[in-house]
Specification:
The complex is a heterodimer. Chain A is 82% helix and 0% strand. The two termini of chain A are 23 Å apart. Chain B is α/β, with parallel strands linked by helices. Chain B folds into two domains: 220 residues, P-loop containing nucleotide triphosphate hydrolases (Rossmann fold, 3-Layer(aba) Sandwich); 57 residues, no CATH class. In chain B, strand 6, helix 6 and strand 7 form a beta-alpha-beta unit. The radius of gyration of chain B is 24 Å and the shape is elongated. The chains are: A mainly alpha, B alpha/beta. At the A-B interface, helix 1 and helix 5 of A face helix 2 and helix 3 of B.
Chain lengths: 275, 301
């Protein structure tokens, strides 16, 4: 455990040094504040609180941005250190390979968690201060921030898996971008295409549920858009939450599985990799 | 505590069809300073990586400090191990002091001793600067400092002196001698045998993954059987010498008036005694370490 904490601490400090923490926090805060104020402007008369609107727009932003940041943080983690030669030295120390991976994961997740909580939290506090407070929406907001961190963890784990599989940093970067495109853009388009073409003959509600759980980005979206009535009402998916039959528990479970399984696979592969 | 620090038996490591290391037996003992010599690609780095457990042997067994280094239980043994990789890579964004502190914590060593260690390798003045700004020599010093953390019982140094200036090389060997006096095993790899003269007790020569020689430098001289040569200059016309009677039989003419003879070490004195008074500039040319190394490389190829 001690070794894990030491390595996590080093990753955190690296993140501070090379401005990753600063850059991602500033980016998320700027976008969140923009969405909070511009996004809430047209809702003056509709009976939806500013915070609930912000949750809908912020979670859409998160689906694009957080996986991208997570993959950029993680794709280089293993292959880059092996390439530069720092991994050989690290592994000559009394530290197990799974400890290296877990330590790096904790450090990278810490960077992402800080950026998300600080960036989105700034937007939430600004809305509160501007007088758009709605105590009911705060729970949904907290869930959104927490699940955003979880989504980041999922893609950090996938990034490690990519980083462990390939021999070359460039390849890892390319595959990471491919992973992002697939889960964030292509999967939903393909799913929509299939739904339209199929007209509900083979793709039943159960199959659709399964397909949604097979993409962590969709699980995240569903979790946040259906979490509370006033949010789902505004998101236009009020009926969906009830009809999918996927409760928050199942969705959170899917996200957690998406984080644990790739991380476990990456650790198992890394244990056998030659350095 | 066993005196055998590293035991390798019948170790082979294949990369695809290529054998990086082939059927190698090697025992390294405590208090020994061993030079591992071979040209680039001879398998030195692969051998060291197998001792560290970074690479698993395709066949054979490796034991370092009583443990299989590739097994999970070797973590404890690695606390007593120091490693300096070839072209040491360190994290450029950390300062020298931070780098050493990070590695000391991983080895569960008190960070308090680090300042003295940085002083010892001569970079105390640059401790607060980022490693990215260091010169190659300074990085190598910092690399050595991390290898020395926690007074290791076995030090594996992969081409430690390449790229070091002579002054630093001397202080480097001083540090190694100190460690050896304390009973540590030191393994130094190098691509030049001459560089190790006077620094090591034993030399292991590798060629194409095989061990082609193992012994002290004097042993190697005996094994290689390169004869000493006696060289002299004669003031008289060289033609007369070349055509002369059997007094100069066996001598070859190297250049104008210069003659050379190869003989056994035991014959040197009698040959010298038989030389005429007119012989000048008498030299005994013994094989240099580079000649020795070349002989082993040729013999094994």
């Amino acid at each position: 455990m001690r070794q894990v904490i030491i390595i996590a601490g080093k990753e955190l400090r690296d993140g501070m040094r090379n401005r990753w923490v600063l850059a991602t926090t500033a980016l998320l805060a700027a976008l969140a504040l923009t969405l909070a104020f511009l996004g809430a402007a047209p809702t003056g008369t509709v009976k939806v609180s500013g915070l609930a609107v912000t949750i809908v727009s912020l979670s859409s932003l998160t689906i694009f941005l957080v996986p991208l940041i997570a993959l950029l943080l993680s794709y280089d983690a293993i292959v880059g250190e092996v390439d530069r030669g720092t991994m050989a030295l690290l592994l000559a120390y009394p530290v197990a390979r799974w400890q290296v991976m877990l330590g790096k994961f904790a450090g990278h997740l810490g960077i992402l968690a800080f950026a998300t909580v600080a960036g989105y939290g700034a937007a939430g506090l600004a809305l509160q201060w501007a007088g758009n407070e709605d105590s009911g929406a705060w729970a949904a907001f907290a869930l959104m921030v927490a699940s955003s961190v979880l989504l980041g963890g999922v893609f950090i784990a996938i990034g490690y898996l990519v980083s462990t599989l390939v021999r070359d940093r460039g390849t890892a970067g390319g595959i990471a971008i491919g992973v992002w495109l697939f889960f964030v853009l292509l999967y939903d388009m393909a799913l929509l295409g299939v739904l339209v073409a199929d007209q509900g003959r083979t793709v039943t509600a159960d199959v659709l549920n399964l397909l949604l759980l097979l993409n962590p980005a969709d699980a995240y979206r569903l979790l946040n858009l259906t979490a509370t009535p006033n949010v789902s009402g505004f998101a236009g998916v009020a009926g969906l939450g009830a009809s999918t039959g996927l409760g928050p528990g199942a969705l959170l479970g899917a996200l957690a599985a998406w984080m644990v399984v790739p991380l476990g696979a990456a650790a198992a592969l890394f244990a056998r990799r030659q350095v | 505590m066993t005196s055998e620090t590293v035991i390798m038996r019948g170790v082979t490591r294949r990369y695809g069809r290529q054998d990086a290391v082939r059927d190698l037996d090697l025992t390294l003992r405590a208090g020994e300073c061993v030079g591992l010599v071979g040209h680039n690609g001879a398998g030195k780095t692969t051998l060291i990586k197998m001792m560290l457990g970074l690479v698993r042997p395709s066949a054979g067994s490796v034991q370092v400090l009583g443990e299989d280094p590739a097994a999970g239980a070797a973590a404890r043994a690695r606390r007593d191990l120091g490693y300096l990789p070839e072209n040491v890579a360190l994290h450029p964004s950390m300062t020298g002091a931070e780098t050493l502190a990070f590695y000391a914590r991983l080895k569960r060593q008190p960070v308090a001793g680090n300042a003295a260690l940085l002083e010892r390798v001569g970079i105390a003045g640059a401790a607060r600067r980022r490693v990215g700004t260091y010169s190659k020599g300074m990085r190598q010093r910092l690399g050595l400092a991390q290898a020395l953390l926690g007074r290791p019982r076995a030090l594996l140094l992969d081409e430690p002196t390449s790229g070091l200036d002579p002054a630093l090389r001397l202080s480097f060997y001083e540090i190694i001698h100190d460690l050896r006096r304390d009973g540590a095993m030191v393994l130094l790899s190098s691509h030049a045998l001459a560089e190790l003269e006077g620094q090591v007790d034993r030399v292991v020569v590798m060629n194409q993954g095989r061990k082609v020689a193992d012994g002290s430098i004097a042993d190697l001289r005996g094994l290689a059987a390169i004869q000493p040569r006696i060289r002299l200059r004669l003031p008289r016309a060289p033609r007369a010498v070349a055509n002369g009677p059997d007094a100069w039989a066996g001598w070859t003419s190297v250049s104008e008036g210069v003659l050379e003879l190869s003989c056994e070490e035991s014959e040197v004195a009698s040959v010298l005694r038989g030389l005429p008074i007119c012989a000048q500039d008498i030299e005994i040319v013994r094989p240099s370490l580079d000649d020795l190394y070349a002989a082993f490389q040729k013999g094994a190829a």
